[in-house]
Amino acid sequence: MADDYYKLPGGFVLAVEHDTPFPDVSLALTEPNGLIAIGGDLSAKRLLDAYRKGIFPWFSAGEPILWWSPDPRMVLFPDELKVQKSLKKTIQKQPFEIRINTAFKQVMEACSQTPRPDQDGTWINQKMIQAYCQLHEIGHTISVESWQNNQLVGGCYGVRIGRMFYGESMFHHVSNASKVAFVHLVQYLQSQGIGMIDCQMNTPLLASFGAREIPRNTFIDLLSRLVNT
Questions:
Q1: 30: which of 38, 49, 154, 184 is 20 to 30 A away, CA to CA?
Q2: Please, what is the Cα angle at 139 between 100 and 46, to 5 degrees?
């Protein structure tokens, strides 16, 4: 059967079914930046296949699943982590108990409830939470959590494949709780031999930690080696 496509202002994008392979990322639309496919499902198999190819899902409630591979790509190499002096002082005071993978679903739910500048609603809907919890059950996700008085007050999470990590989201209920968790996450990933952290899109916060944009073809080249080691 011939492939079906959606016609958008920026061009045509593939409509994927459950067993439809993703197209090459070079075919992603320029506008909107990196949209490469629409549809499919959020099974663990589909998600892992997407991440291995440099593709991730991002869509709002009421929309079909939208798959993206932007160019350029924001990444953080763990050995390039920058921690500002004020944050270093906060970390030295140890205001939080840091835990790893003790409340993955809670972190996702808290991220889904956190308002984002310039965003109406959240892409972390119940389908996403259920799907990533399945990835968590098979050992492909990591959450780092900041706790105070046995209460979860901040954290971040993402997906791991081989020596590659894909950062997804973070939240805080107490000042600096997510930043401290993120620093611990990067340090933990470095100790685990992770070679690159995918930050997806450029934000001032990520740039302040040393993340930078690289061309998508460079990202894919590095990714293809890291996911297989």
A1: 49
A2: 130
Whole-angstrom Cα distance, residue 179 to residue 92?
A: 13
Which residue in 126, 160, 155, 125 sits closest to 141, CA to CA?
160
Verify that 19 and 132 share a domain, yes or no: no
With contact defined as beta carbons under 8 Å apart, do 55 and 33 qualify? Answer: no
DSSP type of residue 75: E
- Any idea which residue has 């470095």 for tokens? 190
Q: Tokens 């296949």 label which residue?
A: 49
Residues 83 and 175 in one domain: yes
Residue ranges making up the domain that contains 100 = 74-226
pLDDT digits (tens, 9 = 90+) for 79-126: 999 999 999 999 999 999 999 999 999 999 999 998 755 555 468 999
- Do residues 216 and 69 lie in contact, with contact meaning Cβ atoms separated by under 8 Å? yes
Same domain, 49 and 16: yes
pTM for the model stands at 0.94
**The residue to which tokens 């968790």 are assigned:** 181
